[in-house]
Amino acid sequence: xxxxxxxxxxxxxxxxxxxxxxxxxxxxxxxxxxxxxxxxxxxxxxxxxxxxxxxxxxxxxxxxxxxxxxxxxxxxxxxxxxxxxxxxxxxxxxxxxxxxxxxxxxxxxxxxxxxxxxxxxxxxxxxxxxxxxxxxxxxxxxxxxxxxxxxxxxxxxxxxxxxxxxxxxxxxxxxxxxxxxxxxxxxxxxxxxxxxxxxxxxxxxxxxxxxxxxxxxxxxxxxxxxxxxxxxxxxxxxxxxxxxxxxxxxxx
Length: 252
Prior knowledge:
Number of helices: 8
Radius of gyration: 17 Å
Shape: globular
Helix content: 25-40%
Structural class: alpha/beta
Largest sheet: 6 strands, parallel
Strand content: 5-15%
């Protein structure tokens, strides 16, 4: 029997049940820098369900160089994890999409006949390096929209090159980008600059979704530390769209 952490469920007023769906996580075992083994996947899922989540969307990295994951591999691992979760009779739904690195390979994939793995319907999660804006950003956004995809930019607060150019966020929103908050950024886990930018974007109502982006149990601990912070009330009142995804299923 697995020795899971976070065994005590928090009260309804002090957990994440109002979000219901975590749209960004790295819980599929052994295919990126997230959970290395199925035991780690189950520990993360168990911790999240005990803190109020009803659905988790696994979003493994897909990048041309580091993580050349395929749609077939991701869905195979999703089904493997689903079967393990069913064995515990846990009240949580597991789905899968992908977190696509905006690189040359992503543009080629977008323009191919293969359907991208979406968070829901046509919403596709994309990311860039934290150090420099992708040289493929403009072409990627154009290609996505031409082919009917809605870009959802993961953790915009973590792109350090935008911290002193906040107008860039306005430009991205004007170009049709949705924004996803890495919730644990508000805990200070990624540093003061990231936290400050997250607070700015939140105050400007620029976020559309939030996600944990959990890779390991330290991220779960950071996520739950927010429950005791002033920021938690602000998150509770913010009109995130996550709830609309609960119990929805992608046609894959």
